[in-house]
């Protein structure tokens, strides 16, 4: 494995720590608050990242093991709703994220250069495993920003109430 790949896998693993750092000190109210019924709470965002990790795991393995072309698709809002994340302990959600992340990182570490370039189809668009890998890291960043927007909206809402 190249040094660049090792660094990238470390960035992948670090996504969990980024999430945990962002959630330090948040109350149960802040974690479960929703700006609107159709919006996600902070817990639901983190739960979505667990779901996305599961789907990501299936996608990368089916490309390598089965030369599968079509990606597993899922309805993220339905999955988030069905998890009932706001009734869960954040520690349990984070433990699940850590477990899937660690398992996928081990898989990535064993890939050959050729396997990193294998492709699958996401709604007609070809993506390599390398693309999926980078996309997952960006996906976490998108949801960290979403968490911040939730917290900003909550703070603004609390200010209005007073």
Automatic annotation (TrEMBL):
Residue span(s) of domain DinB-like: 14-147
Stated name of the protein: DinB family protein
Species per Swiss-Prot/TrEMBL record: Paenibacillus roseopurpureus
């Amino acid at each position: 494995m190249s040094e660049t790949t090792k660094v990238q896998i470390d960035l992948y693993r670090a996504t969990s720590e980024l999430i945990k750092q962002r959630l330090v000190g948040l109350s149960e109210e802040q974690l479960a608050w929703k700006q609107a019924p159709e919006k996600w709470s902070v817990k639901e965002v983190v739960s979505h990242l667990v779901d996305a990790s599961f789907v990501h795991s299936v996608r990368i393995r089916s490309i390598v093991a089965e030369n599968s072309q079509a990606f597993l698709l899922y309805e993220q809002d339905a999955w988030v709703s069905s998890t009932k994340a706001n009734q869960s302990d954040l520690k349990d959600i984070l433990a699940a994220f850590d477990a899937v992340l660690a398992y996928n990182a081990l898989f990535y570490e064993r890939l050959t250069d050729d396997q990193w370039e294998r492709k699958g189809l996401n709604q007609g668009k070809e993506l390599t495993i390398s693309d999926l890998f980078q996309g997952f890291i960006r996906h976490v960043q998108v949801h960290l920003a979403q968490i911040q927007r939730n917290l900003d909206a909550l703070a603004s809402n609390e200010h209005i109430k007073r």
